[in-house]
Amino acid sequence: MEPIIGNSPDAPAADGLIVDTTTQTFTRDVIEASREVPVLVDFWAPWCGPCKQLTPVLESAVKAARGAVKLVKMNIDDHPAVAQQLRIQSIPAVYAFKDGQPVDGF
């Protein structure tokens, strides 16, 4: 089984398709990147069981899309500010960003 958090050896992370972000790098990793390609943001926490099930599915879909979309993962325990600004009340939560703006989420 692939690791839930972090990148497996065969993950395309070197290509920047799947990255972990922080409050400090969110603008670059999500807002700016979404001007080039849609970006999914996976808000998660280590204690969240459903997050551990969803993250590998998202990673697989992003890999299969071969650069048509990026995945950015944000641990809300370590970096709560962005989740609070987006008024995320439960996780897992996934938002899609395009052209620097959130366009959809679940």
Work out the helix count: 3
**Residue fraction in strands:** 15-25%
Class by helix and strand content?
Answer: alpha/beta
Largest sheet: 5 strands, mixed
CATH topology: Glutaredoxin
The pLDDT mean sits at 88
Over the alpha carbons, how many angstroms does the gyration radius reach?
13 Å
DSSP summary, beta strand count: 5
CATH superfamily: Glutaredoxin
Spatial separation of the terminal alpha carbons:
25 Å
Report on the structure:
There is one protein chain. With 106 residues, this protein is α/β, with parallel strands linked by helices. It has a single domain (14-105), classed as Glutaredoxin (3-Layer(aba) Sandwich), CATH 3.40.30. It is 27% helix and 25% strand. The chain has three helices and five strands; from the N terminus they run E-H-E-H-E-H-E-E. Strands 1-3-2-4-5 form a five-stranded mixed β-sheet, with helices on both faces. The longest helix is centred in the middle third of the chain and has 17 residues, at 49-65. 25% of the residues are buried.
Task: Kindly list the characteristics that best describe this protein.
3 helices, alpha/beta, Glutaredoxin, 5-stranded mixed beta sheet
Summarize the helices and strands and which ones pair or pack:
Layout: E1 18-20, H1 26-32, E2 39-44, H2 49-65, E3 70-75, H3 81-85, E4 93-98, E5 101-105
Parallel strand pairs: 1-3, 2-3
Antiparallel strand pairs: 2-4, 4-5
Short description:
The protein is of the alpha/beta class. Helix content is 27%, strand content 25%. β4 (93-98) and β5 (101-105) form a beta hairpin.
